[in-house]
Amino acid sequence: MAAARPCTPAVSGRHGATPKARLRISEIFHSVQGEGDDAGWPSVFVRLTGCPLRCLWCDTEYAFQGGQWRTLEDVLSAVASYGARHVCVTGGEPLAQKRCIGLLARLCDAGYDVSLETSGALDVGNVDPRVRKVLDLKAPGSGEVTRNLWSNIAHLAPCDQVKIVIADRADYHWAVARVREHALAERCQVLFSPVYGRLAPRELAQWLLADRLPVRLQLQLHKMIWGDEPGR
């Protein structure tokens, strides 16, 4: 399995955006990262409004609409106010807003350790290579399996992660087949996560151990602490 390493350095200002460029922001908050390599780290979350998908188990439906238009300068100032090293840009689907690309680059230029949580339904080819991409492939149980953009796999680096949220045994078999078909574990870390409140973590752990898969079991730390409370 590929070992995680720092993302590829890039020239400062790559894919930059003007300070007055605006994005529709659902919320900016300070919390503990609950997933992936950054789990446990105090992090600032920038949640962009809007998503073209409607996953059946989505826990952030409130981000589908609403939010406020904020300038890039305002977003960067809000992030800086928390004094955290880690920043996670999420949604919704953040890449549904074209100016997200510029935001990611500017956060990297400012020296943050930046991650992007994306559904994998939109092209990640223009994402700044300094950003750690977390590609959330959609299993059949999500209701959005046909939206997976498989060409995104070619853009994955060893620092990136593929996450598959699993609702049941059928989703698990689908996920195992995709890991093997696309040699995902040789490209980057692969994370299997149970749908919160639907699939028991113990059951998924037993499946993984029985099949000796080179993937990582992921539980959502933030939900263990705060449940479904928004902004956490």
| Major β-sheet profile | 9 strands, mixed
Task: Classify the helix fraction into a percent range.
Answer: 10-25%
Overall geometric form: globular
The gyration radius over C-alpha positions equals: 17 Å
Kindly report the average pLDDT value.
90
Report the end-to-end length measured between terminal Cα atoms: 31 Å
Describe the strand arrangement of the main beta sheet, using strand numbers.
3-1-2-4-5-6-7-8-9
Q: How do the helices and strands follow one another from N- to C-terminus?
A: EEEHEHEEEHHEHEH
Outline:
With 232 residues, this protein is of the alpha/beta class.
How does this model look, in words?
The chain is α/β, with parallel strands linked by helices and 232 residues long. The protein is 23% helix and 23% strand. It has a single domain, classed as Aldolase class I (TIM Barrel). The chain has a nine-stranded mixed sheet. It is globular. The chain starts with 21 loop residues before the first strand and ends in a 6-residue tail after the last helix.
